Amino acid sequence: MPAYIAICIGGLATFAASLLQREFSSDDLQVLRVFDEVNDQTQGHAGCGKIEVSTTVDPATLWLKSRFIMNWLVKLTIIDSLSSVSDFHSALTSLGSSSISSAVTVLRLHASTSWPEPIRPMVTSSHQSPSSGPTLYRASCVRSGTSHPFTSLDVSRTLGSTLGEIFPEWKASMKEYEIRVIAYVLNSSAWIGMSLNNRDYQRNKGNLDSEFRYPHGINVKTETTSKIGLRPSTCALLIELADLKSGEIVCDPTSGMGSICIEGRYKFGDEVAFLGGDIDKEINELRMVAAVECGLTLWDCTRLPLRDGLIDVWICDPPFGVHCGKTKDAITLLKHLLRECRRCSAEGGRMIMLIAHRIKELRRLTFPNEHVHAVRWRIVKERKINLGGMLAYIVEMAAV
Ligand SMILES: C[S@@+](CC[C@H](N)C(=O)[O-])C[C@H]1O[C@@H](n2cnc3c(N)ncnc32)[C@H](O)[C@@H]1O
Asked: How many structural domains compose the chain?
């Protein structure tokens, strides 16, 4: 069975692995190992959750049924005890040309797989076997951790030159390439594979591939404005954590570009109702299409135009990052948001909140803290995660 490496948010890799095991039978997919470290050293390390699987599932099905995965790589090798940059050379050399060629075959199979619409147009334009000329490749490194005696550039160069030694007929190219080899290095381990993500959807400047999903978000970046929503895979994980049931009403009170609602609608269709809103007028103009499909509107989450007890589940990504003004204002907003959501919450209502900088305030404001002004939400579970290199929390709450 071909082996793959799945990349996801750090802190949720074990959960994502369990979702893969739920989605595919053990005859078709086996989880071989999970790396899920989140600590101060993973700060800055995007995508530090890694899952090694072996599977016979075709890549199109794999992608479609694992929207919570940021990227799939065809596995080349995993180094467990890195000591110097020459370990990358040794690892690829001992892997040998036939194993690397097999991985390339899987990659090309990926391109020729019959992809369902509407994803197909997005994936066919790269990973094509070149009709003529050399195979073009690029090597990159996503590195985190302290005291490495090498830089990311050293790793990329070593990987690139080793591939050039093994395949003298290949040609390195930073812009036009069919094959992208990525090494995810964290402390003394390195996970190395060939990215299955489509080149057109890779951010050439960044090391982490962006996602090609459909709907792949409605990010808007112009000279005058930048509205970037959560990654679809992050939204998919939040939705999985919410464990939604048919007929439930779900609300994102600070929906931004509406990514959570869009992802939810994609997964559940008419089975679950999603609605959301944002106070930003510009956002409400930019997201017209999604707004119509997903019931997104202009509102202030501290005064929701919803009746008491309407919402079963809240999935919430509030504005408590570094860019949201004074701490006092942010805490006030958090308190009013929680109160208002509680008012509109059905009996047994629950909330999944993604929160970065205000976790202490959230604990102080909610049960089990006996604070006299605590809002009527109880923290059921906290998960520490690495969100694009930033340490954050996903907090599960229940209405009390
Ligand atoms: C972290 S962003 C949400 C991003 C969103 N999850 C996405 O993927 O696009 C937080 C959002 O809260 C909105 N917001 C801030 N104060 C608000 C309020 N009082 N009512 C509703 N939305 C508010 C901001 O405009 C911002 O779009």
From this structure: 2
Residues framing ligand 1 (Cβ under 6 A) = 229-230, 254-257, 259-260, 278-280, 283, 300-302, 317-319, 333
135 and 22, same structural domain? yes
Residue 204 pLDDT greater than 50, yes or no: no
The residues that bridge with 79 in the sheet, in sequence order, are 190
Task: Specify the ligand 1 atom closest to the Cα of 320.
Answer: 1
Amino acid 281 reads K
- Rounded to whole angstroms, the Cα distance separating 286 from 31 reads 41
In which element (H, E) is residue 149 found? none
Domain that holds residue 326: 220-399
Nearest CA to ligand 1 atom 26: 256
Q: Tell me the pLDDT tens digit for each residue of 339-383.
A: 999 999 999 999 999 998 788 889 988 987 766 667 899 999 999
Note the pLDDT tens digit of each residue in 121-133: 444 444 454 556 7
Tell me the CB-side half-sphere exposure of residue 400, using CA atoms within 13 A: 14
Please tell me the residue having the least CA distance from ligand 1 atom 7. 229
User: Contact 398/341 with Cβ under 8 angstroms?
Assistant: no
Cα(5) to centroid of ligand 1, in Å?
33
- 253 CA: nearest ligand 1 atom: 21
